[in-house]
Amino acid sequence: MQSRFKLGFRTVSILLFIKIFLSFVCFVWLDLAFNVFLYPMQAQNLGQGHTLRNKNIVKVESPQRNTPNSPNSKKPKIISRNPSVRVTSDVRGNLGPASVIIQDPPGKDWIKDRWQAAGDMHGTAIPGQHWVILDFGSNNPRSITKVVVDWEAAYSNDYRIEISDGLETEKSSPEWCVLYNTQNKSQSTRRRVEEYGQSPGVKTKTPLHVVHTINIDGMQVNCSSFRFLRVFIRKSAMGWGVSIWELDVYG
């Protein structure tokens, strides 16, 4: 009786194993047929604008689309370091002329390669508000994405960046459209500040560069076109005459 029970159990086990094995083989064959015949037919019907991934239809862009690494992609570029761009300022100062702030390549000489609204090497500020203006001439930029002001240790935290189609004369007073204003608290997140280096003019720890990067992209302004960009400086943050190494405009 016991031997018959063992024989019956063994037979059932073998039959169950055969059934599982055959089911697995059938599943593999069905899955293979499904992937080899059905999905290629669907992919062919979808056309070149689609691809298949993990048996799900995923739309992909055309191969001609510009990507960040493709030669046809449009990246923001510096539009201010151009021989046709002219720079003026309200004061000459005691160091380099205003034109040094867009020279290409940028300079590193602490005396010759920065503009400063000061009257002497002690950094004594020339009284009043000051400005520098970039004149793009006939090459009017279509848009501006960001402005980078590379200040020296004599930086400002009270200024605005604005654009206009013309300059003030005795007969006309064109409107300046404000792109960025440090006094506008709602725009505070648009500015990033970086400091590096050591100023040779002071013994205490003082940065040689205070870089303000202002994101202009997407900002709504009233000016549809412009020729001039002005950095209007109301006040120095350090008491010295404000000083700028570089002024880069991206568009």
UniProtKB/TrEMBL annotation:
Residues 59-81 are annotated as: Disordered. Keywords: Membrane, Transmembrane, Transmembrane helix. Residues 63-73 have a biased composition (Polar residues). The chain crosses the membrane at residues 12-38. This is F5/8 type C domain-containing protein.
